[in-house]
Amino acid sequence: xxxxxxxxxxxxxxxxxxxxxxxxxxxxxxxxxxxxxxxxxxxxxxxxxxxxxxxxxxxxxxxxxxxxxxxxx
Length: 73
Description:
The protein is mostly helical. It has one domain. It is built from two helices and no strands. The protein has helices at 3-21, 34-70. α1 crosses α2. This is DUF1146 domain-containing protein. Keywords: Membrane, Transmembrane, Transmembrane helix. The chain crosses the membrane at residues 6-21, 42-64.
């Protein structure tokens, strides 16, 4: 799989995760540190988005290799 595709997929996954987390208000959990609450949202979106894209890349890699391993004779 192309490294450019993997980088783009990772960036899009992080953006999508951050977009989904926008309605969550971490300032209610951390009322005295709203800046840290915003940073927590960014860090969580990065970690979850990277994990999600890594999982997708692995699954696609397995799907690409699967026909070759089954039809090997």
